[in-house]
Design brief:
Layout lengths: L22 H8 L12 H4 L6 H13 L1
């Protein structure tokens, strides 16, 4: 299955890269690095560009405390 740009979905990532808007390419890039794409994070946390599991769990915990 080819990885194509999805114009119906807004990319949450604020970092410019060649994968911007291509979710499957983004996941493919981050997975071997032990990271998660920007769309897994809150807008506030996404801007830190910290994509590791610890940052994701911290972000999720913070959102639950709300």
């Amino acid at each position: 299955m080819p990885c194509e740009y999805n114009s119906q979905q807004t990319c949450a990532c604020t970092y410019f890269c060649p994968r911007h808007g291509k979710c499957c390419a983004c996941v493919e890039h981050h997975r071997p690095l032990g990271e998660f794409p920007a769309c897994f994070f809150s807008a506030e946390m996404e801007k830190t560009y910290d994509r590791n599991l610890e940052a994701l769990l911290k972000d999720r915990e913070k959102s639950r405390e709300g």
